[in-house]
Protein 1
Amino acid sequence: MAARAHGPNILITGTPGTGKSTLAAELCQRSTLNYVNIGEVAKQGDLYEGWDHIYECQMIDEDRVIDELEEKMGQGGNIVDYHSCEFFPERWFDIVFVLRTDNSILYDRLESRGYTGKKLEDNVQCEIFQTILEEARDSYKEEIVHELFSNTPEELEDNLEKVLSWIEHWKATH
Ligand SMILES: Nc1ncnc2c1ncn2[C@@H]1O[C@H](COP(=O)(O)OP(=O)(O)O)[C@@H](O)[C@H]1O
């Protein structure tokens, strides 16, 4: 099968709570692209390598996740959602969107998700220090990394339109 026969591969990354899964799921509803939630892929295949005692969650086995997705990513047409971005092969993605949310809004979203203490504070700090944005800029060509603000429903709609028009442009030119 030709490379990217099913369309472009898009990475949506950002601190937990910035709205990745909301944006990615809605994009898949409004396009022909396929939603790939890395947390779900790990869960379905039991692709873990141990327990993280600090954050009290499973640690995903990154190498096995990559092996699991390699063929699908080669075909193209995927929207990948994950809160980290440096371990993926750079060649997988045609564009990378990093979602950003103001600290106080993010704090409230994570608190209502049930995050408390260190987990809550560390995630808000991760956003304050632009950790994921820098990780994306270090891992991919600068011109394919785009920051998207995701504080309000209006911004969500703007982001949907931006990404959908990028997908249309990609399809028209490939
Ligand atoms: N642009 C936005 N404006 C308002 N609320 C949003 C926006 N994006 C996401 N949300 C809300 O924030 C919460 C976290 O979003 P979610 O998509 O689960 O984030 P992530 O996948 O990055 O962890 C959800 O309750 C979602 O409805």
Protein 2
Amino acid sequence: DDAIVSRFQEYLRINTVQPNPEYYKAVDFIISQAKPLSLESQTIEFVKGKPLLLLKWVGSDPTLPAFLLNSHTDVVPFEDSKWTHHPLQAHMDHHGDIYARGSQDMKCVGMQYLEAIRKLQASGFKPLRSVYLSFVPDEEIGGHDGAEKFAESQLFKSLNIAIVLDEGLPSPTESYRVFYGERSPWWLVIKAKGPPGHGAKLYDNSAMENLLKSIESIRRFRASQFDLLKAGGIAEGDVVSVNMAFLKAGTPSPTGFVMNLQPSEAEAGFDIRVPPSVDAEALERRLVEEWAPAARNMSFEFKQKLTGKQFLTAADDSNPWWGLLENAVKEAGGRTSKPEIFPASTDARYFRKAGVPAFGFSPISNTPSLLHDHNEYLGKAEYLKGIEVYVSIIKAYASYESKSGSRDEL
Ligand SMILES: CSCC[C@H](NC=O)C(=O)O
Ligand SMILES: [Zn+2]
Ligand SMILES: [Zn+2]
């Protein structure tokens, strides 16, 4: 167990922090881990300097579709002064909790896949289907140069993947969370224009006034969604979330901002997440009519938006991979809770869009969700238990004999 934990810590110590991740260090490390497992390996640069590592454990029946275990190698930035232990040190405290950026999101999962394969090989297990592992770059900044290009590639098609597993979220309770779809990310910037003027003058249609009207309207909508959530009976992934990311306006001066000049431009940015169950067209109409109406001298732009429809992976008897997953977790002594819509975004959306079903799953129970937060940590025991869960899942998936795949549906 000590060696297993040390290998996890070693991966966590590699600086793959956005916006300057040392991708090749991570890839070299994973390759060194894969060597003793005799996995086939290829490194693909869809974009220069952003390697995607693809590993393959060859199954004995090449006529069966394979499955893919995906993880991203990058992590989000941190404010190290706000952490109890430095986020790149992967310090394990006396409770056995390992503190590091990526300990939950999602270097844990990437290493657990490999450790599970190591254990299966040691036990003499031979896969019937091929198992692919992808270690992809750039998930945290949208995945466009990583999983998106991969999922759209000829290479991906040629792998004949029937099901993808990707990241989920830690569960504060005993049962693991599983995700079968995601909210669609809308990173929205609204801009207002208006005549400038003296700071002492009251007049209509200034950029600031125009922007504030929109912000008030957006806040009312946010409150209505938050109220639904607070009232209970509805999950996080089933309401629209709206949060202001930035406000930008004013005329800079050496001491701050000019105080007696009403600026001619002002803008605000919002992180909005739209559930598949919500009428996105109606929401976009609201945006055009109420949040950024041209009549009020406003315009808008999306910095990020998933185009097209949102695909859902069946999490019922119609999808054999669902039952296999549920059962495998059970056999490992765990439990899955009711499948949910992922509240944020993961690379799984690109695989689903390519027509391949995908589940979001991180085997982390009894742990607060600290993704992107200070003091992200994972307990050693939870990490080790997660490896056993993957042993069980990989065994079940790799042994599944049926030729039938399953395609995604809306
Ligand atoms: C919308 S692209 C950014 C992806 C990112 N994923 C995880 O946190 C997220 O903010 O959901
Ligand atoms: Zn992640
Ligand atoms: Zn993340």
